[in-house]
């Protein structure tokens, strides 16, 4: 099965269009005000309206109030939610939407237990731990912490970039890769060449594995 790719943290319509034309599976929109990649409703609507069919839209939240999430869902066509905070399984299930639960990996993180707790998630996203940030740090983590088998599709994140995508696919064999910082010129500003290079590497990685 080919490795899916999500590119996260778009703030500009033109960047999302380039990503879609290059073959990305999903784009991520960050609805977390402290993030430099945060988008408002109007900008999110403009980005989604410019996308072709079959490019999924993922909305990222960090410990958001339910009203904020309902507000986004009422105004922006979202395919999937991504929870990057301390949301409980019950909180993730409130919206009648497919969801991804992000986990910031530490030495004692029990991925199997999390997969059981969030058993109805559409994927478990494994990201680097940082004491002062919830994500989007550009840091990798020790992929040896990931168990070889998991009941949920594994979405690998954290410090991915053109240059380590093939290695990531070979080491982890994830369902998908999620990248943000590694394809940027500045926070929230994507680099067309880096996005294309990343997607090309993922295709190469899949070819090597097959
Ligand atoms: O992108 C952000 O600003 C962000 C903020 C808060 C939580 C998560 C965020 N992004 C996600 O972080 C991971 C890793 O990103 P990176 O490639 O290391 O920059 C990824 O899932 C982003 O969607």
From TrEMBL:
Keyword Ribonucleoprotein: no
Presence of keyword Metal-binding: no
Catalytic activity: N-(5-phospho-beta-D-ribosyl)anthranilate = 1-(2-carboxyphenylamino)-1-deoxy-D-ribulose 5-phosphate
Superkingdom, natural source: Bacteria
GO molecular function, one term: phosphoribosylanthranilate isomerase activity
Catalytic EC class: isomerase
Pathways involved: Amino-acid biosynthesis; L-tryptophan biosynthesis; L-tryptophan from chorismate: step 3/5
GO BP: any one term: L-tryptophan biosynthetic process
Alphabetized UniProt keyword annotations: Amino-acid biosynthesis, Aromatic amino acid biosynthesis, Isomerase, Tryptophan biosynthesis
SUPFAM superfamilies associated with the record: Ribulose-phoshate binding barrel
HAMAP family from the UniProt entry: PRAI (MF_00135)
Family the UniProt entry places it in: Belongs to the TrpF family.
Protein name per its UniProtKB record: N-(5'-phosphoribosyl)anthranilate isomerase
Originating species: Methylovulum psychrotolerans
Gene this protein is translated from: trpF
């Amino acid at each position: 099965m080919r490795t899916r790719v999500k590119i996260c943290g778009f703030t500009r319509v033109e960047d999302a269009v380039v990503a879609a034309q290059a073959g990305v599976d999903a784009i991520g929109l960050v609805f977390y005000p402290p993030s430099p990649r945060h988008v408002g409703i109007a900008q999110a609507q403009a980005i989604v309206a410019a996308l072709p069919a079959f490019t999924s839209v993922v909305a990222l939240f960090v410990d958001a109030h339910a009203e904020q999430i309902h507000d986004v869902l009422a105004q922006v066509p979202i395919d999937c939610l991504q929870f990057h905070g301390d949301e409980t399984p019950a909180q993730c299930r409130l919206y009648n939407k497919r969801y991804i639960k992000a986990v910031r990996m530490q030495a004692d993180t029990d991925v199997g237990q999390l997969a059981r707790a969030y058993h109805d998630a559409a994927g478990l996203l494994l990201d680097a731990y940082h004491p002062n940030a919830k994500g989007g740090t550009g840091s990798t983590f020790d992929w040896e912490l990931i168990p070889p088998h998991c009941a949920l599709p594994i979405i690998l994140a954290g410090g991915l970039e053109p240059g380590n995508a093939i290695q990531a696919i070979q080491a982890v064999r994830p369902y998908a890769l999620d990248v943000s910082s590694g394809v940027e010129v500045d926070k929230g500003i994507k680099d067309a060449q880096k996005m294309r290079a990343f997607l090309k590497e993922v295709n190469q990685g899949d070819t090597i594995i097959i």
